[in-house]
Amino acid sequence: MNIHEYQAKALLRDYGAPVSDGRVVLTPHDAKTAAGELDGPLWVVKAQIHAGGRGKGAFKEAAAGEKGGVRLAKSVEEAAEEARKMLGHTLVTHQTGPAGKQVNRIYIEDGSGIETELYLALLVDRQTSRISFVCSTEGGMDIEEVAESTPEKILSFSVDPATGYQPFHGRRIAFSLGLTGKQVKQCVALMGNLYRAFTEKDMEMLEINPLIVTDSGDLKCLDAKVGFDGNALYRQPDILELRDETEEDSKELAASKFDLNYIALDGEIGCMVNGAGLAMATMDIIKLFGAEPANFLDVGGGATKEKVTEAFKIITSDPNVKGILVNIFGGIMRCDVIAEGVIAAVKEVGLQVPLVVRLEGTNVEMGKEIINGSGLAVIAADNLSDAAEKIVKAVKG
Ligand code: GDP
Ligand code: MN
């Protein structure tokens, strides 16, 4: 689960991290009041969407002006004006995809004078099963680009969970970032606080880009991007409250309410599969036959008819879906339950695209009978490659 920058900064502030004073606003009217509460003489007006690259992004609507989603202002009036221009408009960044995201919240901050922009992140390193620090002198840039062109400018190391964070970790970061004097002490404290926030709040990712040295020589977190482990949210009620459902893919949101493992993708073949491994294999084989999957969907082992119906509805609600492939290996899951769910869903939402069904395993004959007796135009398939070939052919001709 991701949160907005202003929420992440409030959280980090609670952990003692240096961030600017700021106010979040939903309307242009509040923008002026909020900007007036900050000292100036520089204000930063920042679009709050769950995507990075806002500064270099661009709005779709001309009314939003030429500038991106992070704007500097020199007066309260100018700050309010920039907020007004951005609110309600669609910001496109390299992370939003071409559709962009509507800006419904604006964060107005006290502007900082910047001496240097640095990069810092904490993440769960799956290779070492530890929390890793990643830092670089190349802040404010796309870290993927830095990793590609100048990997030697990135320092990364993991922390032994048995000892936890130690001051030498912070000093190592400070020296690699070229920090001096009081900044070293600040860095050691800041890294400790960030590590504590990361572990206590079950974060998956914490990215400060840029971490800056201000014109007065102090460290400050100028941006903050935080993602939490969805599996730990049950024990993080205060974090769950920060969830902004309007930022999430509506299909993924619906799926999470029904406990379905669903990830929206860009392709044209909707997939309904049981088991993550089989779902991956199904996506692979769709690609092998020359098409792209529209989603990853594992309905799980113990899916009910209602769950299958819901899954089918989610798949068909995607306008990019030009065909559906149901691929079920019934072990714990029974083929007749899947068949009933598919029929119920089709009766409810209709079937505008070709549907290929491959059933195998428990109660497979019953499942096939249910589908054959339904009068639906379902294309039956016998195995995985047969199924993939048939749906790709039905869609691409
Ligand atoms: P992002 O583009 O979504 O990553 O948004 P950031 O919060 O990282 O802002 C983008 C850029 O705007 C930063 O790299 C800075 O160069 C600039 N910026 C952000 N806040 C300030 C500020 O307080 N003062 C100044 N001078 N520049 C800022
Ligand atoms: Mn940033």
TrEMBL record:
**Metabolic or biological pathway:** One-carbon metabolism; formaldehyde assimilation via serine pathway; Carbohydrate metabolism; tricarboxylic acid cycle; succinate from succinyl-CoA (ligase route): step 1/1
Q: Where does ATP bind?
A: 46, 53-55, 109, 112, 117
| InterPro entries associated with the record | ATP-grasp_succ-CoA_synth-type, ATP_grasp_subdomain_1, Succ-CoA_synthase_bsu_CS, SUCC_ACL_C, Succ_CoA_ligase-like_bsu, Succinyl-CoA_synth-like
User: ATP-citrate synthase/succinyl-CoA ligase C-terminal domain location, by residue?
Assistant: 272-392
**What is this enzyme's EC?**
6.2.1.5
**According to the lineage, what is the superkingdom?**
Bacteria
Record: residues binding substrate: 274, 331-333
**Which cofactor(s) does the record list?**
Mg(2+)
Question: GO BP, one example?
Answer: succinyl-CoA metabolic process
Comment on bound cofactor: Binds 1 Mg(2+) ion per subunit.
Known catalytic reactions = GTP + succinate + CoA = succinyl-CoA + GDP + phosphate; succinate + ATP + CoA = succinyl-CoA + ADP + phosphate; (S)-malate + ATP + CoA = (S)-malyl-CoA + ADP + phosphate
Residues in domain ATP-grasp fold succinyl-CoA synthetase-type?
A: 2-212
Q: Which residues form the signal peptide?
A: none
Q: Quote the record's binding site residues for Mg(2+).
A: 209, 223
Kindly indicate whether the keyword Metal-binding belongs to this entry: yes
Which GO molecular function annotation, any one, does this entry have?
Answer: ATP binding
Q: Which GO terms describe its cellular component?
A: cytosol; succinate-CoA ligase complex
Q: Does the keyword Translocase apply?
A: no
Q: By its UniProt entry, which SUPFAM superfamilies does this protein fall under?
A: Glutathione synthetase ATP-binding domain-like, Succinyl-CoA synthetase domains
The record, for HAMAP family, names: Succ_CoA_beta
Q: What does this protein do?
A: Succinyl-CoA synthetase functions in the citric acid cycle (TCA), coupling the hydrolysis of succinyl-CoA to the synthesis of either ATP or GTP and thus represents the only step of substrate-level phosphorylation in the TCA. The beta subunit provides nucleotide specificity of the enzyme and binds the substrate succinate, while the binding sites for coenzyme A and phosphate are found in the alpha subunit.
Q: How does it assemble?
A: Heterotetramer of two alpha and two beta subunits.
Question: Which family, according to the similarity comment?
Answer: Belongs to the succinate/malate CoA ligase beta subunit family.
- The name of this protein is Succinate--CoA ligase [ADP-forming] subunit beta
The encoding gene is: sucC
